[in-house]
Design goal:
4 helices; alpha/beta
Length: about 130
């Protein structure tokens, strides 16, 4: 399965309802999906990376910086929202890329989660209500 397929199945199993995929949100940019939690609150989810044998997802510096640019544009053009990055690999938290990602958490994005980590499902379940 593709990372996006795994992430969408995880979201649905956690209790989110996928209401649209490949959603245009700002300046021609798209996110993987828009979903609603059990209370009807809309969330944006963007899957970054894939299942490869080399470092992928947000652990790749060029992917991280490209994603943070996208996050900045979406954040500037869109009303307040819940926006989550789902990835196949996160950068080390103490690294420069990890610190950059941590700087936008709770600001431009709600969070960034590794879909290969078991605790991610619990977080999604909690958010879905």
């Amino acid at each position: 399965l593709k990372a996006s397929e795994v992430a969408m199945a995880m979201l649905q199993d956690a209790g989110f309802e996928i209401i649209a995929t490949d959603v245009k949100v700002a300046a021609g940019l798209t996110v993987t999906c828009k979903a609603e939690d059990r209370d009807g609150t809309e969330w944006l989810f963007d899957v970054v990376g894939g299942f490869t044998s080399t470092r992928s997802g947000l652990a790749r510096s060029e992917t991280l910086w490209k994603t943070l640019g996208k996050v900045a544009v979406i954040s500037a053009e869109k009303a307040p929202h819940r926006y989550v990055l789902l990835t196949t690999d996160l950068p080390a938290s103490g690294s420069g890329p990890g610190q950059a990602l941590n700087a936008v958490k709770g600001q431009s994005i709600t969070d960034a989660l590794d879909i290969t980590e078991p605790e991610t499902f619990s977080v999604l379940e909690e958010w879905a209500g």
